[in-house]
Amino acid sequence: AGLGGGSSNAAAALVGAATLWGVGVEDERVQEVASRLGADVSFFLKGGCARLSGKGDVFEAQLEPRSGFVLLVRPDAGVSTGKAYAAFDEDPVLPSSDVSLYNNLEKAACSVTPVVAQVLEWGRAAAGEENVVLCGSGSAVCCIFDSYQAACEASVEARKHEWWTRVTSFSP
């Protein structure tokens, strides 16, 4: 769903192995293994709210966590990460520096799994254009709301489309 489940599991296994071997997680060798395992495994070694560069494996800065409530919406269809990256490579979309929430895999994910475009369109109507972003390579979509009640109401509406939903909040 693009929520980092496999990457967070890989990071947890690396932390466990490093601990057993008496090696710090910041050790260059651990970071190198994390980078080879997946683009965002390094992020999960550090956690929190951060800006990364490279392929998502070079820590740049710790960021101030956002506040607000999040509605995750996922259609009953997945996006193949490999196919999404292949579609991106065929027609790359570069990020703009003036956009706060942005995922340049959105166009590729929508081409691989068209229902993702419907979820994004629905989310932007419900939460506002600037408050919706594709999670990873998809298919989950993150919609940000100011209140728990608004997120819950949107969740009910999303479920009418038979989409999976989960309401949560940002936390440090």
What this model shows, in words?
The chain has seven helices and six strands. The chain has 172 residues and is of the alpha+beta class. A four-stranded antiparallel sheet has the order 4-5-3-6, covered by helices on one side. The protein has a two-stranded antiparallel sheet with strand order 1-2. The relative contact order is 0.17.
Short description:
The protein has 172 residues and is an alpha+beta fold. The protein has 7 helices and 6 strands, in the order αααβββαααββαβ.
Detail the poorly predicted runs.
Answer: none
3D shape: globular
How far is the N terminus from the C terminus?
Answer: 22 Å
Helix content: 40-55%
Strand order of the largest sheet: 4-5-3-6
**Could you say which structural class the secondary elements and strand pairing correspond to?**
alpha+beta
**Largest sheet data:** 4 strands, antiparallel
Question: How many helices?
Answer: 7
Task: Return the average pLDDT rounded to an integer.
Answer: 88
Q: What would you report as the Rg, rounded to the nearest angstrom?
A: 17 Å
Number of DSSP strand runs: 6
Order of helices and strands: HHHEEEHHHEEHE
Note the beta-strand portion: 15-25%
Summarize the SSE layout with pairings:
Layout lengths: L4 H17 L6 H10 L3 H6 L3 E4 L4 E5 L6 E6 L6 H10 L15 H7 L2 H13 L4 E3 L6 E5 L2 H12 L4 E6 L3
Antiparallel strand pairs: 1-2, 3-5, 3-6, 4-5
Helix pairs in contact: 1-2, 4-5
Give me some keywords for this one.
alpha+beta, 172 residues, 44% helix, 4-stranded antiparallel sheet, two-stranded antiparallel sheet
